[in-house]
From TrEMBL:
The keyword Hydrolase applies. Belongs to the AB hydrolase superfamily. It comes from Mesobacillus maritimus. Keywords: Hydrolase. This is Alpha/beta hydrolase.
Length: 274
């Protein structure tokens, strides 16, 4: 069973440190988005990389439409990997929606995690006025899903541009487009629906794991109002505003990302839950 999970989720383990970091990719991406950042920590930490079922080099035969209709299904992938590797007090670093996926996993099995680090996270992408501004109106997100169905390549180009929001990194935009285009459009659309129509605001108050929120500048997908909302509603959280522009700083600005992660991790010790 353990070996099945490790192959199912294409799990890679590198590094030899005493502490473990589990890197989780965001929507439409696989573990290779972490290559530069993860390499910076492999001399000091045991690094775990994986793909959600349906992305990257995971076992596509294991994809279950019902399971992955909500973020709970992706959280189960995280818990399965933790169980298969017998993890404890792991530092979870998740990009974008993976921040909420890691949070959901920690609510179910907190012993696996010492800290959650959320890079460009959002508990809800839809606006819910007057008290919450997530960045999108429902019509915008429905239009995004419709475009995925009718013109997937065009959607990939548009969405990569939206995520990056920075013309100075054309190579990263091209990389994102390629990643989206390498994912099965049906699976990508279902993941998008699970992501963009999720609402995890009610779960925030129950989190027992210390959390770092890394908020990007000029992030269309997760604007600053969202990061500040998370800071206000996540117990025992730390908020850091990044200079990096856009939604993918681990790809566009890995140096700053690494620096902020190091700065936080130097104070991390096992079992800091309260």
């Amino acid at each position: 069973m353990e070996q099945n999970i490790l192959s199912r989720n294409n799990v890679k383990v590198i590094g030899t440190g005493d502490r473990t970091i589990l890197f989780a990719p965001g929507f439409g991406c696989d573990q290779t988005v972490w290559n530069i950042v993860a390499k910076a920590f492999e001399d000091e930490y045991r690094i775990i990389l994986f793909d959600y079922v349906g992305t990257g080099n995971s076992d596509l035969q294991a994809y279950d439409v019902n399971k992955y209709s909500t973020l709970e299904g992706y959280a189960q992938d995280v818990l399965d990997v933790c169980s298969a590797l017998d993890l404890e007090d792991t530092i979870f670093i998740g990009h974008s929606v993976a921040g909420m996926i890691g949070m959901l996993a920690s609510l179910r099995e907190p012993q696996y995690f010492s800290d959650l680090i959320m890079l460009a996270p959002s508990p809800r992408y839809l606006n819910d006025p007057p008290e919450y501004y997530g960045g999108f109106e429902k019509e915008q997100l429905l239009g995004l899903l419709e475009m995925m169905e009718k013109n997937y390549i065009g959607w990939a180009t548009m969405f990569a541009d939206t995520l990056l929001n920075n013309p100075n990194h054309p190579e990263v935009k091209s990389d994102l487009e390629d990643r989206f285009c390498s994912t099965d459009p049906i699976i990508a659309r279902q993941f998008a629906e699970a992501t963009f129509f999720s609402d995890n605001r009610k779960d925030l108050k129950n989190v027992t794991v210390p959390t770092l929120i890394l908020q990007c500048s000029e992030d269309i997908v997760a604007p600053e109002t969202v990061g500040l909302y998370l800071q206000q509603h996540l117990p025992n959280s730390t908020y850091k505003k990044m200079n990096a522009i856009g939604h993918c700083p681990h790809m566009s600005d890995p140096e700053e990302t690494i620096h902020l992660l190091r700065d936080y991790l130097k104070n991390v010790t096992p079992s800091r839950r309260f």
